[in-house]
Amino acid sequence: MIIKKLAQEIDKLRKENEQTAKDYQSKIAQQAKDFTISNALKDAGAKNTKAALALLDMDKVSVNEEGQLRERFYNSYDLF
């Protein structure tokens, strides 16, 4: 009985740990994307990056594996 309860608790904790790791990776990826976009706006000469970010459709902006904006979106006017 005790072993079965311990095994169940271990499985529960393992699942919680996996979910926490996924959530953490998602947050890190979102932060990296936001940072990359903010830097690109700053490099492009935006005076107020917060205002420029508010105008962007963030679902249309993507970042590649190297942490750079994807070329097809970088100069596109359909981001607004």
Explain this structure to me?
The chain is 66% helix and 0% strand. It is mainly α and 80 residues long. It has one domain (2-79). Helix 1 packs across helix 2 (49-55). The termini are far apart. The model has no long low-confidence stretch (mean pLDDT 84).
Task: Put the structure in a nutshell.
By secondary structure, this protein is mostly helical. 66% of the residues lie in helices and 0% in strands.
- Average pLDDT reading: 84
Cα radius of gyration in angstroms: 20 Å
The description of the largest β-sheet is: none
What sort of overall outline do the alpha carbons produce when their principal axes are compared?
rod-shaped
Tell me the fraction of residues in β-strands, as a range: under 5%
Number of domains: 1
Please report the number of helical segments: 3
Low-confidence stretches: none
Q: What is the SS-derived class?
A: mainly alpha
H and E order: HHH
Quote the distance from N terminus to C terminus.
60 Å
The count of DSSP E runs of length 2 or more, i.e. the number of strands, is: 0
Helix content: 55-70%
Give me the secondary-structure topology.
Layout: H1 2-43, H2 49-55, H3 71-74
Q: Could you list some keywords that capture this structure?
A:
80 residues; mainly alpha; rod-shaped
